[in-house]
Amino acid sequence: MQVLLIDDERAIRRALREILEFEGCVVEEAENGAQALDKLNSHQFDLIFSDIKMPQMDGLELLDRVLELGIDVPVIMISGHGTLETAVGAIKKGAFDFIEKPLDLNRILVLLRQVKDRNLLVQETKVLKQVVKKIKGSAIIGDSTAICAIKTMIEKVAPSEARVLITGGNGTGKELVARSLHELSNRSKMPFIEVNCAAIPAELIESELFGHEKGAFTSAVKDRKGKFELASGGTLFLDEIGDMSLTAQAKVLRALQENVISRVGGEKDLKVDCRVVAATNKDLREEIKAGRFREDLYHRLAVILIHVPSLNERRSDIPQLVSHFIKLICQEHGILEKSIDPAAVEALSQLNWTGNIRELRNIIERLIILSDQCIMAADVNRYANPSH
After folding, report:
1. For residues 103 and 81, what is the distance between their CA atoms, to the nearest angstrom?
2. What is the helix (H) or strand (E) element at residue 193, kind and residue range?
3. Does pTM top 0.70 for this prediction?
4. Looking at domain 2-128, which of 3.40.50.620, 3.40.50.720, 3.40.50.2300, 3.30.470.10 is its CATH number?
5. Domain 312-383 CATH class label
6. Which regions in the chain score pLDDT beneath 70?
């Protein structure tokens, strides 16, 4: 375990180093918070021991900086006499725990075990998240001409900061395109925040996007960050933006033009830094003619246009999608993966997919639940056709 030990007293550092090295830790030392930050910028640590009272930058300032920088490492504060209340306050801020001077060997050993258990759990969680991500299948499935063109476009556009407008019918996979743009961008380690503009009432959309100040309206009992702030450094995905009110559109336009927002009920401007990707199932040019969508906002959003075709327009991808969903859904249900007869795949390929990929997934799930170990064409005709 890599440990950073920060204390302005050499005797404390020496005593703690001996204990840590005896337990197999690799120890780096710093005399104050400023020195520690330099080491944190160039090394990865599994644990930090930090004194609270130090010159130049004390332990609490250092803790603030570690939390602000998003450095995921447990910090144990070393508390001298008379600073117990401060140490407890540090835990409330986000410190892992504290030890008092003079140092207690048993307490240190207990904390080391707890940190090792915590780090192991964090690592296992990261691995599980990667597994879940793979199971969910973030990759765009298909080799049709249209899908290959979209994949190529994503690879070209993702590393840039260009805004993208994704068009296509409901259930075609517009969100998947948006997520792929984020995952292949330089912002991939930062948040991907999604807002479904059609699902939020018009009177709440501004609060949802820009946040609000306490007392801005009846139910605003405390300050709340909006999606623009939460997506800072990352990507904000405005799904079904064609359903957004004209008032909210005006505020979004300002945010895109000036990179600033103001919370509902607030007076000060807040800087924001997020890449905006939007999607719609509507013809926005027709919406502009009808006076329901701002033309200036359209041109701000549609720097790059990506159209996602309907499933009926990419039938050659259906066999791949069927195979993908069978594997995915069987894993989700915890059952042995079922097979599918080629005639059943052909039968699925002939159906009229008005609900696109979302409908295909639902029907595959239905077939998996209701069919025997091998899905046959008769099963497709029997179970896949209520809406066709």
Report:
1. 12
2. strand 192-196
3. no
4. 3.40.50.2300
5. mainly alpha
6. 81-84, 125-138, 218-221, 385-388
